[in-house]
Write a structure and sequence with these properties.
3-stranded antiparallel sheet, alpha/beta
């Protein structure tokens, strides 16, 4: 098997799996209890918070553990804007994950507006500048687009915010960027940052929101007052401790960009009409682990299932919405032509993927493409 859908989810690393099992069988104590074993678990949770803060340069920001990226985004947006009483607007970039887009559209009393993308899938700064004024309450921009790998211009967005609407909050969905693309929360003056464990080889069901001092949150879950009254419910200690292990074990990006570019170059040779969707895969404007490429005339789903039959797994966009739409919303916002949008595949990598695996993928692709490209829908 060759697994190239790591933006959908990742295999849990050995250290995280072992820590999770240990926590469930030995360190299973409720961290809210007062006896020593519970305090030991609470200390381990604190170490995970500190590891997250260190990785994002969060300083004295708060780390609130959640069930994943969706809850973290919802807490930042719905919880951060719940106290707005005088109207205004919340802005979100065109390629945002539904967890952000739908949250923005559901903020009561505020108008939600979409910031367009350019043809590389990055925020159009000229349009954003015209959209910013004193009525803007929050700007939501992902660190890395989950479909194209485009790294968003957060430094420029932060400067525009400071110049035109300094009181507006800046929320970043870092689910596809955490540990894979450098991020400095303090330098960028970001108010909140969401991450998810299962994208970085931790288990599903755990994530976090890093919240700066300007973000005043209204809890979305009430009850026992855990997480400083911001997220009630007994903490998912096996998941949290496993997340800490996954962060410590993450090997860096290694050869991911080299492996990605190798696959990209060979696919371009095999398909004369191929086209990359997003920035140049070799540039820093493209994340090291995502390649979105159109390979007409074979449709995305057709090639996906053909490769699946040979033990190769790839994606065709956001796994959270791939069952709901035929053509990616993100590619539509980038004005990708229909035939290219319908033939787009997303290859997403992890540090364990190798060039030898890419040769296996290329052999399978070449065999299937030669057959399938003969048949075109009229």
């Amino acid at each position: 098997m060759v697994y190239l859908d790591n933006s959908a989810t990742t295999r849990v690393c050995s250290r995280a799996a072992e820590k999770m099992m240990q926590c469930m069988r030995e360190d299973y104590f409720n961290p809210s209890a007062l006896y020593a074993p519970s305090l030991h678990v609470e200390k381990a949770m604190k170490a995970c918070r500190q590891a997250i803060l260190q990785k994002v340069h969060g300083g004295d920001a708060r780390v609130i553990f959640t069930s994943g990226g969706t809850e973290a985004d919802n807490l930042a947006i719905l919880g951060g804007l719940a106290s707005c009483r005088d109207g205004g607007r919340v802005l979100y970039s065109a390629g945002e994950h539904p967890a952000v887009r739908e949250a923005c559209l559901n903020v009561k009393g505020l108008e939600a507006q979409e910031i367009p993308y350019d043809r590389e899938g990055r925020v159009r700064l000229d349009v954003l500048e015209d959209m910013l004024d004193a009525d803007v309450r929050m700007i939501c921009v992902m660190q890395v687009n989950n479909e194209t790998g485009a790294v968003q211009p957060l430094e420029e967005i932060s400067r525009l915010r400071d110049r035109k609407c300094a009181d507006a909050l800046l929320h970043v969905d870092g689910v596809q960027g955490f540990l894979r693309v450098p991020f400095d929360m303090r330098a960028l003056k970001v108010d909140s940052y969401a991450l998810s464990g299962h994208k970085i080889h931790a288990p599903k069901g755990v994530g976090a929101l890093v919240a700066g001092s300007r973000l005043r949150l209204t809890p979305r879950m009430v009850g026992g007052g855990q997480e400083n009254n911001l997220r009630s419910g007994t903490e998912n200690t096996p998941g949290i401790l496993a997340l800490g292990e996954a962060i410590a074990a993450y090997p860096g990006n290694g050869d991911m960009r080299r492996v990605k570019c190798y696959l990209y170059e060979k696919l371009m040779e095999l398909v004369p009409d191929a086209r990359v969707n997003g920035p140049d895969p070799a540039s820093d404007l493209s994340a090291p682990h995502i390649l979105n490429i159109s390979l007409p005339p074979v449709r995305s789903e057709t090639m996906l299932h053909a490769l699946e039959g040979m033990g190769i797994y790839v994606g065709i966009g956001s796994a959270c919405s791939s069952h709901k739409q035929k053509v990616s919303h993100t590619l539509r916002t980038m004005h990708v032509e229909q035939k290219y949008a319908e033939s787009a595949l997303r290859f997403s990598f992890c540090p364990d993927n190798t060039r030898e695996e890419m040769d296996t993928v290329l052999q399978a692709f070449e065999k299937n493409y030669a057959l399938l490209s003969r048949y075109q829908r009229r």
